[in-house]
Specification:
eight-stranded antiparallel beta barrel, mainly beta, single chain, 14% helix, 305 residues
């Protein structure tokens, strides 16, 4: 299925689910809670994959001589292997006051490591233009890969305290301390530019969650890059190009979302502007009380005379 059809199917599914959810299901997230604030911290630990798609590709490199003859420089197969790594993250989230489709927003910073190896195995021309068995090895890795993401999520309650969620987000990835190397007869291969260290991608995701107690949510969540926006992916999808290979980043994380408790109401505080009736002793009441005390003192003074 093409990326356009895939995204269309996801959006239609979310819209239909959102309409049905507003009519028949409730969200476990309440922005008007009297006990907890509608924003807090989120922590993540999980699994990151940098998967080759496809993992092997046939390769033939031919040139045309001045005489018109075709000269084959190499012919064989590229094999691609991506890495798997730990993923850690921290972020801040909030609950929408008037949820229509999305009921929460997140800003998260997560860190992991990308690495990949591509190996050519086949025939390579020697100095006499005779094809001989040979190999070429491309390898690359980063010291750390960071991802800053803004995402919107919608939860659909399955039963009390249990819910399914869908996500749409946009993320900025950066490779820090990346090293790339090529060993072998590289003069007989097409020279590739070094992989981009910065990428922006549209992320899609889904997960399951549980409310362990008020203000605490535990979720298992899966995401992947649905569309790479910068640099624009050659295939129009979310795969990352590292030299000869194309790799699909995806993640499976355990999220722990926390909400801070609201402070206990202090009746001696000034009244809040939106709900002034909640405060018993506000500024105006204190002024009136001081006037009453002054009047009582004046009456007491007159009575002494």
């Amino acid at each position: 299925m093409g990326i356009a059809k895939r995204l269309t199917a996801v959006f239609i599914g979310i819209l239909v689910g959102g309409i049905n959810g507003m009519a028949a299901q409730s969200t476990p997230f309440n922005a008007e809670s009297q006990t907890y604030r509608n924003h807090g911290w989120t922590y993540a630990i999980g699994y990151h994959a940098f998967s080759a798609r496809p993992d092997s590709v046939p390769a033939v490199y031919q040139t045309v001589r001045p005489s018109g003859a075709i000269d084959t420089l190499h012919a064989g197969t590229w094999g691609h292997t991506g890495n798997h790594a730990l993923r850690l993250g921290i972020g801040y989230w909030g609950i929408a006051r008037r949820p229509l489709i999305w009921d929460r927003w997140f800003i998260e910073l997560q860190g992991t490591r990308n690495a990949a190896t591509s190996t050519f195995d086949g025939l390579v021309a020697n100095a006499d233009s005779i094809l001989q068995p040979n190999t070429l090895l491309d390898s690359g890795r980063s010291v750390v890969t960071t991802e800053l993401t803004f995402k919107l999520q919608r939860a659909f309650e399955i039963k009390t305290d249990f819910f399914f969620e869908a996500q749409l987000g946009i993320g900025w990835d950066r490779e820090w301390g990346g090293t790339f190397s090529r060993t072998g007869p590289d003069s007989l291969f097409v020279t590739r530019a070094a992989p981009a260290t910065d990428r922006i991608a549209l992320e899609l995701g889904a997960g399951l969650g549980v409310r362990t107690r008020s203000g605490r949510y535990l979720r298992i969540h899966a995401t992947y890059d649905g569309l790479q926006l910068a640099p624009l992916a050659e295939e129009g999808d979310g795969r990352v190009q590292w030299h000869e290979g194309h790799y699909q980043p995806w993640n499976l994380t355990l999220q722990w979302d926390l909400l801070r408790s609201k402070p206990v109401e202090d009746c001696a505080k000034p009244p809040s502007q939106d709900r002034p009736g909640e405060v018993l002793f506000g500024d105006q009441m204190q002024k009136d009380r001081r006037k009453q005390l002054k009047k009582q003192k004046r009456r007491a003074k007159k009575n002494r005379w």
